[in-house]
# Entry
Amino acid sequence: GAGVSQSPSNKVTEKGKDVELRCDPISGHTALYWYRQRLGQGLEFLIYFQGNSAPDKSGLPSDRFSAERTGESVSTLTIQRTQQEDSAVYLCASSLGPRENNEQFFGPGTRLTVL
Amino acid sequence: AQSVTQPDIHITVSEGASLELRCNYSYGATPYLFWYVQSPGQGLQLLLKYFSGDTLVQGIKGFEAEFKRSQSSFNLRKPSVHWSDAAEYFCAVGGSGGYQKVTFGIGTKLQVIP
# Structure
């Protein structure tokens, strides 16, 4: 597609439920990143994919968070047993490759609200 | 560990006035530095980046930033602000660990008044 897309754009869920957030990167981009943006905070790195492997998962805040990527395309971020502190905007970005000077292109984000 | 400080959470400027958004970073070697803009309801868009070379970097939309190693700063400037520049601006620093792990500041929200 023309840009990074994410779905859903908004998700409201009850505490304790599982949620899945989807990211479609730009075609041909091998690198994919997930970030979390809490209200009034900067972007918090969660996980990085190169192809379908995740060499850096260091930002995942707990074992309730997991992510997968199919080949060099779609990625899903799953949050199990959601908590109110998980409420945030989840941003996905992709880049051509892992080199430092590759620009990251961001999607519009998924706003997650946990009641 | 790398970090970014944006000391101004909110800034208000008049349309046509000059703008400077501050950014200070902490990184053990030569950093890769970025400024992104996030308009309401939009994803982040890269304004400009610094990797090496000329310390004054030109970006899109008339923005520029200057890397000052002695001050660990990478301030964003624009000589004349337009109403459409109202948005949130994020400074970020990247490492050289073989892939682009980037640490973002908390952002500066810019309000432009007529």
Notes: The CA atoms of residues 9 and 61 of chain B lie 22 Å apart. The mean pLDDT of chain B is 91.
